[in-house]
Write a structure and sequence with these properties.
312 residues, Rossmann fold, binds nicotinamide-adenine-dinucleotide, binds uridine-diphosphate-N-acetylglucosamine, globular
Length: 312
Amino acid sequence: MVSGGAGFIGSNLVRALAEQPRISEIVVVDDLSTGSLDNLRDVPARVLVGSVCDPDVLDDALPGAASVVHLGALGSVPGSIDDPVRSHHANATGTVSVLEAVRRHDVRHVVVASSSSVYGAVPGMPRHEALRPMPVSPYAASKLATETYTLAYAACFDLAVLPFRFFNVYGPRQDPEHPYAAVVPRFIADALDGRPLTLHGDGQQTRDFTYVADVTDVITDAVVRRVGASDVVNLAFGTRTSLRDLVAELEGVLGWRLEVEHGPPRPGDVRDSQADCTRLRELFPAARPHSLRAGLVATVEWQSAARALSPV
Ligand code: NAD
Ligand code: UD1
């Protein structure tokens, strides 16, 4: 069962899982609050439209499930500042609801999505999992709840868990039009429309940009091999790119200069982010990430093709 399977990472994951001969059935639970059924077109999955907070939906989804990958959440930092209770409900309460359903249906393997945003204001780079989390947004606090509830359930019940901290994930099927769209799809859409790109703050903030297939390959391997861990694991490959360098890389991919404007710094924004990937490498030594250039090329191609298909 994949919660949030109609979203960006989820729909890429469902496609990757569907290629695995050892996986016989995939069930998606998604309330379509930010995801879309279009993302799952032509994908062999049973889709249940409903919330992870609804036990009846989970009781329909979970019988017979060998693994749960819990991605369903409201993923935006600014969105959580606009409505902290909504973020808490979907992300923290939603996780407890999934874990309770896992217990009811005796599922023994759970992968969950936490976030590098939990590091927040903690000093020290790269971000190692042993650093004390210091969230600076309600979203980050809700993700800390996601991972700690998952570890607590593993300690109390017979359950293998793998709480991943994703960093800034980008790639095909990431929505560029959403009001809280992430920086990579937003910049590509602005560039293709000929609009200036808006840098919040000085543009020197850094992210460990991670191509979505690199994330879904690791999760697929985790599901197939039933990998568990006794603590959280960063899922990124230890790169550090400033937004200014991201703009330059995008100019290289597109072959033209991009106009940039500066906006005010965003409340709740993390300044710098880079993963220590030692734990990830121990658990998944075969993982080979794409370069930022290769990932951006594939993402620009996808956005260009999606535009060509959509009515004007
Ligand atoms: P997304 O918004 O595209 O996907 C999230 C999906 O969850 C959507 O399809 C949405 O409709 C669904 N959803 C939201 N609330 C739900 C609920 N109550 N019940 C059922 N479904 C619900 O975002 P994404 O980028 O694919 O994020 C997937 C997960 O990864 C999230 O948990 C997010 O917090 C986490 N994450 C993402 C990133 C990133 O860079 N994209 C980084 C760190 C963590
Ligand atoms: C993203 C994810 C979040 C995840 C986190 C982990 C999304 C929407 N958010 O948050 O779920 O937990 O990674 O690292 O996927 N920016 C601009 N101009 C823009 C848009 C953004 O300058 O037009 C800046 C932001 O202020 C921020 C940086 O770009 O400094 C990255 O922003 P964004 O992609 O929205 O995501 P994160 O805050 O990193």
